[in-house]
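REQUEST ID: PR-0412
SUBMITTED BY: lab tech R.K.
PRIORITY: routine
TASK: structure prediction, single protein chain
INPUT:
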Amino acid sequence: MNRLTAGGLALVSVLAGKISIACRLRRPPEGWRRTVGILLRSEPTRFAVSAFGLRVPGASGSDSPERIRQMAARALHRYLSSSADAHFALEWRPAVTIRRRIAAVDVAVLEFSDQGELSSVVPLLADDPAVRLSAAEQPRVLQAIVTVYNQTRRLREVERPGAIRQSVERILGPDDRAAIAFARRLLAATCVSFETVDPSDATARFRPPQFQLRRSLGFGFLTFVIRPGERANEVDVWVGAHHVGLDGVPLQELVSGLEQEWGSGEPIVFPSARSDQAFMPPRTCSVEGERAVDELLAFVDFSPVTALRQAVNARFADRLEAPATFGAVLAWVLESEPEFSGVRIASTVDVAASEGYDRDVDVVPLRPADYASRGDRWSGFIAFANEFNRLIGLSRARRSPLREGMSTAGLLPAAVHAHVVRSNPPALDETFGSLCITIIRDAKVFVAPMTDLGLGHGFFAIGSTNLPSADGTPVAAVSIKGDAGRISDHHAALVRAIARSATLAQALS
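STATUS: complete
OUTPUT:
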């Protein structure tokens, strides 16, 4: 797209949109979902959460592994059918991915080889008179999906869904409307597969699945990987999600609801932060042709950061407009590490549904170094924490500067918006931050998302900081994604920042 033409279209679109809003002919667009629909379109941009030791409803220790898998898939289908947040599918447009609400949740049970080849599909479709295909006719559709999936499984995610659908429909033929309707429902289904990990490795269950080897059928936004638990009728559940479909906190709430409905066995003990099992080295999580992204996982003890937070809130209660958050304290100590010196650090905020808008997310991007020179060390931190809290308040009220910017960008045609974003990647780091930290307080292992552009210093995803560990010390799982070859030192930097927190807390005591 010609830069001058794009600029002219952008100006006209924004002016026309602003006039329409001022005249109350339309309301400001919901900018968050549009933004992630443009910036998060590749395989490594998906994120995941987990649950361990869930009891499969109705299963017993005497049931065969195959029967337990069948029972788990059916029970999951029943649960998702009653969960409003599961009723979405993706629509892949040339410049943006959007979500659309669907009436019924379908499940496709997939079987993969260790190399990621699809060998079979078992449909669990919601009952719908409009989509009926006899048992005799279904194998032809299922085989077409298996064949085409394997032909396209290494394509970039922006290309793959459309390629799958077009090829499957070409095989079935344009006149076979019943088969095409059946296939389309399956391609938009929630995908479930089963994976066995090495039972002799005590930490293998905590390592996330390689979701890029178990990709969806294209248009569903949820991908479940279920592993056997320690007991025959128990399973560990991992669910990956496309961010357009659902954000992190509501996805965790969906999984927490599953935990509550199914129940769990004995408490799970996670690796100690001081053990050899506390660190999973970087590995690739992208596919060829996409941004090359690595991911790593570590279990760390954040109690020094919590202690520092408590100390500063006690010492400076009269100067803090509200208590400093865990995220603000962590960003402050991380910035002192060479890897993150001078970096604008973003924190995510869960934003409740209001004013006719769906629940979504906002981002608070601040550079701690901008406040470090304001008098003594603690004066700088107080100024930083107060601004951090001010922006959180604006985010929750849907009035933040970033929210307003995303809303304005949402007035652009999607193709123009995408062109503007991709033509100036450095502006993304200034707008959204170069390092993002997101926290889901109830999560076990929370696998980080990533973006297609920007976030040059990576993405930290942190779950509960009170997971029980083998040595009795609470730990948190920290997932880090970033450019391939660039995040290998991030764990060490985080450990040093935590250690500095202990020293600072002691000095304030």
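NOTES: The chain has two domains: 34-262, 276-508.
REVIEWED BY: pending
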